[in-house]
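Customer escalation, tier 2.

The customer says the design service returned an amino acid string that "doesn't look like it belongs to this structure." They asked us to rerun it and document both sides in this ticket. The original structure tokens are below, unchanged.
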């Protein structure tokens, strides 16, 4: 048996063992994850079902709209799969300690690449089934499909996610292997990307010039629809295959399924050859590029030293945390993906005509955007801020020798997280509100809301991280899987709901003129006081408990 097969079987055995040990996890964590998964599937299925019902009530227009919206949905899903595959593939192929350990074993590089490729594909694609299954299931239930037809259509999702995840790994290998280094090569790479963007823009303009009148209206209303409908795109095969089954054309749908499967086979055969040739050289280059990394670290250090003036131990810890975050692509890429997608959505609000809606709807959309932004900030603070104190447990002896204390170290981590979340959240909130052109009182509340949400989330995650500090060499995933991580996730989400929902309700009632006993200024003042008081309590009380725990705990 090949070493790659043994490694894959060992990884599957580890997953099976982890599944058996679910009963050893905190019950509140298991109940929370199970309840959230069920609510997610049910609510998303109901949302898709309502959307299909609305489209088919339009009559004959549904037969023109549904296929194109299908292709657009799967194109967006495919691009997210590519990003996930690229980030996960980079972490599994170049950064995990397992790769460094396997290099000393009698495992050929080709088998090591096979194993890392399969592992990264599985890790980057499994979560997307929680979006694809409700979408296809809602469509199947609306069209009264049988269970066999529904299961047959769900088979499309397996080669679809494998194809785009593999494309993400391929793109990552090309970038890591031939990324320009040095100023001259960097300038040439930038010029090439600019030329590629210019050529793509001209190509899209030519397509728009040759499209029909109906398609022109849709393209102007829904950006990216022309590209999504291109017949050689895999997302178009996915959409056409499912719709073929919906129209009782099983032969045509099976042909699209075989086309997806054969494309996955060709891609992975190419990845096997290409990766066996590129991966050893790229891995060696990655492991031995000390000079380039030292120059990059020196440049980043100089920038951070200007951002953190003065001389203190807290300044040193701030620079250290920032360098660790910026040097790890698996961390900053998650920030870039989540906030980048939100920024793209906010930028397109103007083209969708939301600013021309009635003030009631634009105000409602503004607070829904604030909630989605706060939810992303909550998940990222739980992922990155909560484990910070536990990760310092291995070097607490250095803190004891330094002219500082654990309490001041905790305060430094809180300030750094609060400033970072506040800058990003306020910037994206301002972008959303400028596109929606909401009224003055709602604009003031949204501007106040994001910094206060950042303070609440950073304080809660830092304080609870100090209270439930894990000792020993543990990874962030292991730290988050404990009782403290689960409790922090619940409380941060609950805080976001209270901070955004209550001001949103009062603002919505104010726009509807349902609050007659208070003026607009009074409602804005009372709501602002509520936001400030609740945020300071949600962030300050866990910080106080964490500080007291650090003072009384024996390390």
């Amino acid at each position: 048996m090949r070493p790659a097969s043994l490694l894959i079987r060992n990884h599957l055995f580890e997953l099976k063992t982890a599944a058996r040990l679910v009963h050893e996890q905190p019950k509140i964590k298991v109940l929370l994850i199970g309840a959230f998964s069920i609510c997610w599937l049910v609510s998303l299925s109901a949302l898709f079902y309502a959307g299909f019902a609305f489209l088919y009530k339009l009559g004959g227009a549904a037969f023109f709209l549904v296929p194109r919206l299908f292709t657009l949905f799967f194109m967006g899903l495919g691009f997210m799969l590519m990003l996930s595959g690229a980030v996960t593939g980079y972490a599994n192929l170049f950064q995990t300690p397992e790769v460094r350990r396997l290099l000393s074993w009698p495992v050929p590089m080709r088998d090591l690449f096979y194993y890392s490729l399969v592992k990264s594909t599985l890790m980057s694609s499994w979560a997307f089934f929680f979006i694809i299954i409700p979408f296809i299931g809602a469509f199947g239930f609306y069209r009264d499909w049988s269970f066999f037809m529904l299961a047959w259509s769900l088979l499309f999702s397996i080669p679809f996610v494998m194809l785009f995840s593999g494309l993400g790994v391929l793109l990552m290998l090309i970038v890591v292997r031939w990324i320009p280094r040095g100023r001259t090569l960097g300038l040439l790479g930038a010029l090439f990307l600019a030329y590629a963007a210019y050529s793509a823009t001209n190509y899209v303009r030519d397509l728009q010039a040759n499209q029909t009148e109906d398609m022109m209206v849709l393209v102007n209303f829904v950006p990216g629809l022309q590209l999504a409908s291109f017949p050689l795109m895999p997302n178009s095969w996915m959409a056409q295959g499912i719709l073929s089954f919906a129209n009782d054309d099983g032969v045509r749908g099976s042909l699209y399924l075989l086309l997806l499967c054969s494309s996955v086979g060709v891609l992975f055969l190419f990845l096997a050859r290409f990766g066996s040739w590129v991966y050893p050289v790229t891995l060696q280059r990655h492991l031995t590029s000390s000079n380039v990394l030292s120059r990059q670290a020196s440049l980043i250090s100089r920038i951070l030293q200007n951002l953190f003036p003065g001389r203190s131990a807290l300044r040193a810890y701030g620079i250290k945390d920032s360098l660790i975050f910026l040097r790890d692509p698996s961390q900053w890429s998650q920030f870039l993906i989540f906030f980048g997608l939100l920024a793209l959505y906010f930028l397109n609000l103007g083209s969708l005509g939301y600013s021309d809606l009635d003030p009631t709807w634009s105000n409602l959309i503004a607070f829904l955007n604030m909630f989605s932004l706060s939810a992303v900030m909550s998940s990222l603070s739980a992922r990155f801020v909560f484990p910070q104190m536990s990760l310092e447990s291995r070097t607490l002896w250095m803190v004891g020798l330094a002219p500082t204390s654990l309490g001041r170290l905790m305060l430094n981590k809180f300030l750094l997280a609060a400033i970072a979340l506040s800058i990003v959240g306020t910037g994206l909130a301002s972008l959303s509100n400028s596109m929606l052109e909401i009224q003055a009182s709602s604009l003031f509340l949204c501007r106040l809301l994001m910094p206060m949400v950042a303070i609440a989330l950073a304080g809660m995650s830092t304080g609870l991280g100090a209270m439930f500090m894990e000792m020993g060499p543990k990874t962030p995933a292991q730290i988050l899987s404990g009782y403290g991580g689960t409790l922090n996730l619940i409380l941060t989400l609950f805080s976001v709901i209270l901070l955004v929902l209550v001001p949103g309700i009062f603002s919505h009632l104010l726009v509807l003129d349902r609050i007659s006993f208070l003026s607009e200024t009074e409602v804005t003042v009372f709501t602002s006081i509520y936001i400030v008081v609740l945020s300071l309590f949600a962030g300050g009380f866990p910080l106080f408990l964490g500080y007291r725990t650090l003072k009384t705990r024996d390390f």
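Tier 2 assessment: The sequence is consistent with the input. Residues 12 and 18 are 10 Å apart (CA to CA). Residues 329-552 form one domain. Sent an explanation to the customer and offered a walkthrough call.
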